[in-house]
Amino acid sequence: MEFNATDRKEAFRLSEGDGYAIYIIGVHDDGDVVGITDEEFESTVDTIKNMAQQLENTRIVSIEKRTVDSQDSRVVAEVHLSQKMPLPQTELRIAVLGDHGAGKSTVLGCITYNEEDDGRGKARLNLMRHQHELESGRTSSITLTAIGYSADGHVQNYANNRSAEDIHQRSQRVVTFIDTCGHTKHLKTTARALTGYAPHAFCIVVPADVANVSAATLEYVQIAAAFRVPLTIVISKMDIADKTGFGAMMRHLMSSLDALLPDRSQCIVTESTAHQSLADDMMKLNVVPIFTTSAVRTVGFSELVAVLGSLHINLSDKCSADCEPFEFHVEDLYSIDSVGSVVTGWVHSGTVSSTSDAQLVIGPDSTGNFADIDIRSIHALRIPTEAVTARMSASLAIQARNAVAIQKGMVVVDARTLETTKRHIRTTFAATVTLLNGDIAANQDVIIHIRAAYHLATVVEIVTDATGQPSGSSGSKATIELELAESEYIAPGTPIVARDGRSLIFAGHVALV
């Protein structure tokens, strides 16, 4: 759908007004009140209604009209518009992982822009954020991009929309891709994506022009098993694969999946595959779909997009989380001149409204304290909204009642649950983990990623592996005790990832605090 200049002006006014706009009819730009006739008034209101229909999720809230000249029956009016996203919209976040050069950004470029690659990285250019990324072809930061599905199932992407806001406005369901870094130099950034952005599923990209699956790729498979998240595999670069090398790589991949995910079968997706049943089995952790794609020939992407459109998060878990106390995890923070402090992240549990009188607090700071805040406005998927619920990503414009240094990894919670929250502020905790790379030992120092924060920690003790025997070797599962260098909010079930300089050490969940 193409917008004309008038529609774009209205969209801009709504964006500037945080989802609200007021049209004053019958007044010149210089403030001179002249009024218009009733016929002109009705025609003007009809025009505003038509613009609102073009923008979607936009409606006229009220019309305030008065007569300024009774002799000529001339009137002036204020037309109030609101653009608020309906709550039934759902979001699925997928972390896209893989080794350096696997083609992650290129695959996402083909999906989100619906265009083929030229073999030299053309499709990935739209996802690059920095000049050095464009020059090297190496992703060094986390990039978020998305596609959507309208109520009638039509795919919404950048091929038929002008911006991310348009995609979100026209979609009933949104799939957000978290494009991560493949090079070990940027391992910290990738680790933060795994814990801070709370992906619902993993998508691992494996190039078809290699003979063996890389160690980094197998580590991501192990993390998917440790986090118990759904997993799909995308084979890229099919256009340059040779038969012998591809066959060897596929045998290695299949045997590795059998060993690391013994409870999940594999399914190579074709045009005849039943997409909905495959998607359901994937989300139930029963199967790992494998897609063979070529960005140059745009092969395999229609099947991938169709399966992605059939994925659904567990609504029973979401409904249960909606009833729990409000908890919001801060991924990032900004200071905007016209707005103030804005925190972005996702709602772990509960519901919050910009009109609610619930008292919220943010923290903990370095001393373990929380600060009172007020929510001024809420955006979900870049669209102004009245409220957000569990499992949704959101941006909150907040105003602190007292000085506080907001940091990534903080939480926003209901003040009524503050005493319970403070009991989870600890320096020591136990975790159930899968060891990924080499051995670990007591008194070893590691860097722990928890939510969007990371801390230096010491392995106090390796308690047991899954068989109840002491263990510290790669590939085994273990319960370990950790001590952080500074206190942190640590709740049971929280995913964690540990690394050293350039390798991942273990991944799992907080067990006890």
Please write out the topology.
Elements: H1 5-16, E1 20-25, H2 38-55, E2 58-69, E3 74-83, E4 90-98, H3 104-113, H4 131-136, E5 143-149, E6 155-156, H5 164-169, E7 173-179, H6 187-196, E8 201-207, H7 215-227, E9 231-236, H8 243-260, E10 265-268, H9 275-283, E11 287-292, H10 301-308, H11 315-322, E12 327-336, E13 340-349, E14 352-353, E15 360-363, E16 371-380, E17 383-385, E18 387-388, E19 393-400, E20 411-414, H12 418-422, E21 425-435, E22 445-450, E23 453-465, E24 477-489, E25 495-499, E26 504-512
Helix pairs in contact: 1-2, 9-10
DSSP E strands, number: 26
Share of helical residues? 10-25%
Percent of residues in beta strands?
Answer: 35-45%
Number of helices: 12
Described by its quaternary structure, the protein is single chain
For the report, how would you describe the main beta sheet? Answer: 8 strands, mixed
Mean pLDDT: 87
Runs in which pLDDT lies below 50 for 5 or more consecutive residues are: none
Shape: globular
Strand order of the largest sheet: 6-5-7-4-8-9-11-10
Q: How large is the radius of gyration?
A: 26 Å
Structural class: alpha+beta
